[in-house]
Amino acid sequence: MPIPYTHLHLPVFVKHGRDCALHLCKERDCFVVPPLLVARLLAMTIWVSGGKIMSMDKGTLYIVSTPIGNLEDITLRAIHILKEVDLIAAEDTRKSKILLGNYNIQTPLTSYHSYNIAHKTGGLVGEILQGKNIAIISDSGTPGISDPGSLLISECIKKDIPVVAIPGPTALITALTVSGKPTHKFVFEGFLSNKSARRKKQLEALKQEERTVIIYESPHRIIKFLEDFIEVFGDRELVIARELTKKFEEIKRSKASLLLEHFSTNKPRGEFIVIF
Length: 276
Fold this sequence. Notes:
By secondary structure, the protein is of the alpha/beta class. The chain is built from nine helices and 16 strands. The chain folds into three domains: about 5-55, no CATH class; about 60-165, Cobalt-precorrin-4 Transmethylase, domain 1 (3-Layer(aba) Sandwich); about 170-275, Methyltransferase, Cobalt-precorrin-4 Transmethylase, Domain 2 (2-Layer Sandwich), CATH 3.30.950.10. It starts with a strand and ends with a strand.
């Protein structure tokens, strides 16, 4: 007796046998679907998610985490998804080609960054609505955290497009775990303003924060950040991490004044994570 395959839109029955085919039954007519068409059939099913009905003839947006430095820090699932999707939207296609080439991933790439999101987002959403599966990756780490991927994700959600996270590395959590600071409660502030006056106001607002604070900073602003930090907080202890998982990984735990002295005489390189 065929077993009902209840999540399909049409009354569909699975036939257990050598051919592993599907039987589509409508009223008195019954059609046998060859195995090669099963995958396409499943792509046209109806799923219920969060109380909403979503037609699966739409594609899916995959949020794929990639290594923050060491290319070996990628999951098997991420490699599989990047090989199987129709298109990869990358923040920097030149950097992404290095990773993809290392794992023989030949999926087409398109750029998606802060300078083209205004005209690229709608097009990518449109392609997914037409049935394409697209993966979004950032320069490193998890897309959507302090990068333009968050806009594409929110627009897909508005269109009831399935969004699937492929978890993996993220710099802020990696830095937090090795910082020695309390991890049970923390707040992530991303990048503060590149304007000193505005940055000082943001730091002032954090003076009463009891949770561990995590901030991203660029190499060409880290010295100015430390100067502003000392003015607002005094000579407080900080943890600064950079080049995590790479050959020249550096994690420094010291007073802000000593860190300022260090990076004033040693040229800052790489993206910085500041924790206090």
